[in-house]
């Protein structure tokens, strides 16, 4: 239990994140932190439909501040808000942590919601849940180190699975030494300076060394899908259409 000092539980509304987080925290003697505001499931509408795009951005910013403050704490298990992955900054924070994605299907979400609480609005929850799956399933997968099927209430089995994975998951020390030139590049066509984030810079450097996406994922201790997303984003930022162009651009830097 010495590699990771925080465990984040992510997933859709009604997946049982808080129940799992509490059980896990009790099992290992850590503190449970409830960071799930539950606004969407109480109303039955997406965050942007409730508080608008501007309000949602402010909400995501608040979530980022909460996540940042939690990084200063140790031995905690956190149940997160279902919208936590909708913000890129939040995902960047979570990929470096031990994150468990508790999966759940729309029918099970609906059954649990109607059984456990009285919705504030008479919403079409089935359509609402289906839309969230389309939007967020891939984002949860992107940040998770472990995915668990939460449709069945196998709580003890879930806790055991998390602990087994946690004990095997050794965090790779960051041996990637970056120079200033690894951060600043010039757009391939516009020739304007572009500053990469640290994770992006690491990814590009390893790519330029001839490493595959899977090798980069292992070295950076992130998922293969996250590496692919980083490469796609870097190509977009630098005006490249392929990884070969990215590598050539990297080596052409003064």
Can you put this structure into words, describing what you see?
The protein contains eleven helices and seven strands. By secondary structure, the protein is of the alpha/beta class. It folds into two domains: 6-168, P-loop containing nucleotide triphosphate hydrolases (Rossmann fold); 180-252, Orthogonal Bundle (Arc Repressor Mutant, subunit A). Strands 2-3-1-4-5 form a five-stranded parallel β-sheet, with helices on both faces. Strands 6-7 form a two-stranded antiparallel ribbon. The relative contact order is 0.14.
What topology emerges from the helices and strands here?
Blueprint lengths: L5 E5 L6 H12 L2 E5 L3 H5 L3 H24 L5 E5 L7 H7 L3 E6 L2 H11 L8 H19 L2 E4 L5 H14 L15 E3 L6 E3 L2 H11 L4 H8 L3 H15 L4 H10 L2
Parallel strand pairs: 1-3, 1-4, 2-3, 4-5
Antiparallel strand pairs: 6-7
Helix pairs in contact: 1-7, 3-4, 5-6, 8-10, 8-11, 9-10
Short description:
This protein is 54% helix and 12% strand.
